[in-house]
């Protein structure tokens, strides 16, 4: 039997697992959906998302599998995390690495196994998405591609889960005076100072390449001065609070939302694709357009927003954050100049001036 190898960067890998807080048995509904889907797609006996901890493998998510953990040294997944492509064992009984493995010569044997590493967003493998059965199986190239796609979804779930903790950890680490200086008191969102701080923690400090793609939405309430002039500043404050609530309710918990001006908001959406960024912006415009605001004075106001959006690719330089937000601001200006209540997603015309800084649609 060939014992599972230890990666050369094991200490770094274990440090990442500790920071991600995934070596637990906590329920993970999003991961459970993926393992259940894997079991159905491949019509196998079981599927798991497995974390390779120090001396054990933890079955973080399980589809038709009862164990919570087992020894790392005899694990199939301990081998799989050292590879860049799926490890496929069609029949472990005739594979010299596994033929006398305790998991193969038991009453409930693992005969077929296919596992794809899943990763922290910095690229370190933390575990696998794997499928297995008690009889031999074949894997077509299409099956392998499907397993890789499902493993990528696990990567995204882990990324969003980690990002979700980032803002919470920041809040917990601040004393009350500092915390209040970073929060907009009216809406409870980050203010400009808080936005800069969380961007350093959530994305990357300035000068460090971005570890994930990111959408940026700059939102401005249309004709807000008219709201204040017509209905008074108290009603204007209610409008700001309602729109802040709409943004929080319709974006994810880990997305970064800040109020950076009287009627201006910034939404930073980590892990989003370039194609999805304008769709999210359009969704927010549509929701507000179709949801009149009822004020405390019994008035019903129809309020809209304009949004300037851009998108930054993973791996791009983050050495000029001001320029990135200037692109979104220019897009917002065009949205307001062209009629308001709309999204302008900056076209790909900036590469000559800021080559390598970011990509735009």
Automatic annotation (TrEMBL):
Domain GGDEF residues, every copy: 212-348
Entries under InterPro entries matching the protein: Diguanylate_Cyclase, GAF, GAF-like_dom_sf, GGDEF_dom, Nucleotide_cyclase, Rev_trsase/Diguanyl_cyclase
Cited PROSITE patterns: GGDEF
Catalytic activity, as annotated: 2 GTP = 3',3'-c-di-GMP + 2 diphosphate
EC number: 2.7.7.65
Enzyme class, spelled out: transferase
Protein name stated in the entry: diguanylate cyclase
Taxonomy of the source species: Bacteria, Pseudomonadati, Pseudomonadota, Alphaproteobacteria, Rhodospirillales
